[in-house]
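Please, does this match?
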Amino acid sequence: MILALIEHDRGTLEEASLQMLTFGREAAARMDVPLIAVLMGESARPLADTIRAYGVTSLVWIRHTGVEDYAPAAWASAMFQIMEKKQPRIILAAGTDRGNEVMAHLAARADLPMAANCAEIRPGDPFEVIRLRWGSTLLEEAVLHGEPKLVTVAPLVTTPKESPAAREPVLEEFLPELEDADLLVRVIRREEAVTEGISLKTAPVVIGGGRGVGSPEGYSILEELAGLLGGAVGGSRIATNNGWRPHSDQIGLTGSRIAPDLYIACGISGAIQHMVGCKGAKRILVINNDPDAPFFSRADYGVVGDLHEVLPAIIDEIKKFR
């Protein structure tokens, strides 16, 4: 049996969980074992129909006021109790900040090792995993010990694919026993960021600006291009550190990870931390006046030139067809 922790935020399903479910379904088929999805809280109940389409054998719905919003120790405690009841061979979660945190709590509680950000698992004796390390620039082969195996699946290593199970998956309710200590760290309120239009995570086209943009005002030309293409504007860490863009617009290891159809990187040298954030893009266009910028080695298309000259030319050409 494989247990799969479904991550959501107040009932909004995380795309990384669908990727993890696809990964888990393929592993379950190879091992000839059932795949069971675990839903946390009342707000997760409506997600059951969506989850069923991804080939799960059954679902466990954890009901307790302590897991209604994110509380890592409480989520881990509930998972631990399910683990003891179900005796799975593997427990999976998405390799997100929350997924890794909950699984780390679970590993500590169960005194088990955990393999984070895995791109592949090879069940058997020994149980081998391939992990993404050093900002996804290095593949590490490792042997994972302990029972059950605790694994988080690196985002974007697989594409979500629906594959309904042969039989209608049943939904089982589970009421965990939580202690006060499990709720010491939890989300109690939010300061919501004000966003308008398309977000970085959902935009089909993202225009990113770095040091070469030069100033906050320099982003106006990026905003204009994004408006024409139905895209969103982001920035490198330099841009956010300089106060040119809010941190919520940062693309990279410590910012957002994007996967648009096209990423246009303007005046960004291509540091590894930034590359981690945009490696999911299907196509990358780099515009930089430095022909030796490292980003060109990762680009599908490249333009050596001043972005303040190149972008207006691109905009003018697009407008000719509008």
Observations:
- The chain has two domains: 2-183, 205-320.
- Residues 2-183 form a domain with the Rossmann fold fold (CATH 3.40.50.620).
- The mean pLDDT is 92.
- The first strand starts at residue 2 and ends at 5.
